[in-house]
Amino acid sequence: MGKRPLDLLKKRHTTGQPVNTRYMRDRWGNFLTQTKDGMMMIEGVRVDDIVHKYGTPLYVMVESEIRNRCRRFKKVFGNQISLQYAVKCASNLEILRIVREEGFDLDCSSVGELILGLLADFKPKQLTFTNLFKTEQDLFFAAKMGIQAITADSLEDIEHIANTARKLRKHIDTMIRINPMLQIGTWSTRKNKYGIPIGYAERAVDLAVQSPYVDFQGFHFMGGYVYHPKVLKAAARTFVKLIRRCQDRGVRVRRLDLGGGFPAAIGDQHAFPIEEMRDFPKYFQSLLDRHGIDHPVQLIFEPGKSIVLNAGIGLMKAISRKRLGAKNRVVIADGSSYNFIPDALVQTDVSYDVLPASKLNFPRIHSVTIAGNTCDCWDLIVQNIDMPKLRAGDLLAVMDVGGYAQVMANNFNTIRRAAMIMIAPDGTTRLIRRRDRYSEMFAPELDVLKMAGPNELEKYNNLYRVNIDKIWKGGGMTKFEKKNGGRMQSAFETIERQLHTNGKNKNRNGK
Ligand SMILES: Cc1ncc(COP(=O)(O)O)c(C=O)c1O
User: Fold this and answer.
1) How many angstroms does the Cα of residue 253 sit away from the middle of ligand 1?
2) In the chain, what are the domain boundaries?
């Protein structure tokens, strides 16, 4: 384990001054301050300096906040609950390295995430693999690697694991994901697509234990957002009864994985502190005792967003502003809800905090919509947010974007996804993911072209060179454009024309 910075839990940043209360929330108190003249500082570093060095849009991850949140989980649960970070939430290698140093295992949802875990120096036995379906190749890989456990999501998935294990002649430690069909007020798991409905649980266990190569370990459950500790207590009651039924059939349940879903707030959302779960291991043990379970059952949690969400800040620049009516003001940013903050599109009931990072001393004077820079009318990062008067070049900080942001961002409009940096407690910054390159964005299609026959290869290569030269070197209007009345010609038309000409040439040359 690497050297841990000391006393992070107690730290509140002292460089700079407290952020103006009209913009501040308590949850950013450990790392956010401002200069006297209203420039946001992260870990004591001015955001204009960060932007000068790395550009925008940019994700900034705060190392101390990630470590703090890992340590809070560890402090609350000690060794009573095994903790696995959910890679899908923010799968950056540097983040994985930090959670490893903090003593977490990994919950992986694909072979890609298993590979990332190995690249981040996790041992195979620290990796679990939970998703709805795995290909045979996925299972071969995971089994041969010797990971901690694979979770089956359906009866078919159990058979699938059993068949692969038999082919490999290798035992696979297997968890079975169960939907306990809970209904607590309006919160329900009844329509969730995950897991085997509890009515089929015993059939699933029989299927697993009958297979000579499936080593049944226990149950998995993940019910989505945990809005109150009572949700997990209700799940625990249902599962302990199931564990008792297994015991009565002579089957030992060694582990119960209750997933992630612990809250982390965006905007005004309420997030209960993990400290409210302190009595959970004791409660669980009392249930085991009450139901006469005569062996220990290892509890597992898989937190994702509660570790990283509030540790991430998205820095953007205002690039222009518009008025669409007396009271309808729009500020266009150089980030978007597709390429930068995709959750803004998915969670439509959530409103992100966007702070005027270079104008924190200015009062909120009017309501604006912060629109993203793609050609889609849904691309609004936040609507009706009160802001100071913003101008092109002003910096904006989207708060709480450390999870389900970069990993869900896409290249819509063929825009490159943002870079990500990590900022250390002493204010040093390092790039932990560079901005996309056009070459790698185009590669999947160019690779296909390269695989075409030799004649086509020549044709497309010519095309590629002609277009890139014309578009990038910006040599003004082409002859074709002049002939067509000087109108702007799209790259697509150039390609069409070239294809046409090449086709003709081909025929003429008798190829
Ligand atoms: C199986 C599993 N575990 C853990 C998580 C992490 O959830 P969260 O980020 O809400 O903590 C997820 C999220 O989808 C999941 O599917």
Assistant:
1) 22
2) 8-62+309-433, 123-303, 439-508
CATH H superfamily, domain 123-303: Alanine racemase (3.20.20.10)
Q: How far is the CA of 106 from the centre of ligand 1 (A)?
A: 11
**3-state DSSP call for residue 42?**
strand
Cα 489–Cα 495–Cα 499 angle in degrees, nearest 5: 135
Ligand 1: residue whose CA is nearest its atom 9: 304
Mean pLDDT per block of 10 residues along the chain (511 residues) reads 46 80 96 97 98 97 98 95 98 98 98 96 97 93 96 97 95 97 89 94 97 97 90 96 97 98 93 94 98 96 98 98 91 97 88 97 97 96 96 98 97 97 97 92 77 53 51 50 43 46 40 29
Give residue ranges with CB within 6 A of ligand 1: 86, 88-89, 107, 130, 222, 259-262, 302-306
Domain 8-62+309-433 in CATH 2.40.37.10? The answer is: yes
